[in-house]
Amino acid sequence: MKSLEYFKGCLIGGAVGDALGAPIEFMSLDQIKSSFGNEGLTNYSEAYGRIGSITDDTQMTLFTAEGLILSKVRQGYQGDAGIISAVYHALLRWLYTQETGRQEHLIKAYGTCSIIDGVLTGHKELFSLRAPGNSCLSALQSGKLGTIDNPINDSKGCGGVMRMAPVGLMYDDAEKAFRIGCECAALTHGHPTGYLASGAFASILSRLISGETLTTAIDDSISILKCNTNNEETLRSIDTALELADKAIPGPDIIAGIGEGWIAEEALGIGIYCSLVAGDNFKKGLLLAVNHSGDSDSTGSITGNLLGALYGIDVIPENWILNLELKSLIEETAVDLFDQIK
């Protein structure tokens, strides 16, 4: 198991990628170049009223982490079911930060513990709308807990993948990380690709944090995926990323061959591709991951999670960490996750 610096690298790296992509999330590549020059965005730019703003990707990652941490308290008598329940209630707390007018409804439906468990709702900065995904909002608003056997919808948006890093950090058993990742994603995304891509991402991070190389971690995840039905889209996207990483000079036109990242398998594929071609050059990987016509903050976040878990926090440019919104809280969350597995 790697040290705390790699846990910090994973969560801080993901948040940095999220913040880099935030101002250009809904821009085409031509629009990005028109605004920032031919090289595209090369540093933080203002979004949501400040430099280094996180989006819903990091918000939901933090709440997922909090759910996993709190699940340890109950795991002795609730088992793995307690993990999913704790993450679900943590996501309801995230929903509360997005829709404060729903507090009375949430208390009536789920009990006060849904609101007051944990500490994240004590941070006023999280009470901010940062372009939350419709699938996440509608699934959590429904009052129903989505599962693999009883899907909440047919969505395969990337909202499951982009929040799944804490699962990979928490479980050093890649198969368990995969399974828990799938179940946590299915809370809001019912399409098989929506949760299988999320499980694959969690399993890759689990192997990375255990000390494996990126290629070995990806190969292990592919082996796990092949044991699951409805895996075709996710496997195809990973295979495409691997093929492109071997063949071509990196660039936005190559990323377009994988997709735009709005859906789960494309976001995962882009993150894998950018991480493979970056090597240990975190800045190169992140700028590649955000400068394309697509879901820049999510693909930046996934790439940052992967490279941070692989190389640790020291590869992240210091000025990007310094100006990152909620930097201290994200680091504290990484410490809390690490403390659960020591």
Automatic annotation (TrEMBL):
<protein>
    <submittedName>
        <fullName>ADP-ribosylglycohydrolase family protein</fullName>
    </submittedName>
</protein>
<dbReference type="GO" id="GO:0046872">
    <property type="term" value="F:metal ion binding"/>
</dbReference>
<feature type="binding site">
    <location>
        <position position="56"/>
    </location>
    <ligand>
        <name>Mg(2+)</name>
    </ligand>
</feature>
<comment type="similarity">
    <text>Belongs to the ADP-ribosylglycohydrolase family.</text>
</comment>
<dbReference type="InterPro" id="IPR036705">
    <property type="entry name" value="Ribosyl_crysJ1_sf"/>
</dbReference>
<dbReference type="InterPro" id="IPR050792">
    <property type="entry name" value="ADP-ribosylglycohydrolase"/>
</dbReference>
<feature type="binding site">
    <location>
        <position position="57"/>
    </location>
    <ligand>
        <name>Mg(2+)</name>
    </ligand>
</feature>
<keyword id="KW-0460">Magnesium</keyword>
<feature type="binding site">
    <location>
        <position position="298"/>
    </location>
    <ligand>
        <name>Mg(2+)</name>
    </ligand>
</feature>
<feature type="binding site">
    <location>
        <position position="295"/>
    </location>
    <ligand>
        <name>Mg(2+)</name>
    </ligand>
</feature>
<dbReference type="InterPro" id="IPR005502">
    <property type="entry name" value="Ribosyl_crysJ1"/>
</dbReference>
<feature type="binding site">
    <location>
        <position position="297"/>
    </location>
    <ligand>
        <name>Mg(2+)</name>
    </ligand>
</feature>
<keyword id="KW-0479">Metal-binding</keyword>
<keyword id="KW-0378">Hydrolase</keyword>
<dbReference type="GO" id="GO:0016787">
    <property type="term" value="F:hydrolase activity"/>
</dbReference>
<dbReference type="Pfam" id="PF03747">
    <property type="entry name" value="ADP_ribosyl_GH"/>
</dbReference>
<feature type="binding site">
    <location>
        <position position="55"/>
    </location>
    <ligand>
        <name>Mg(2+)</name>
    </ligand>
</feature>
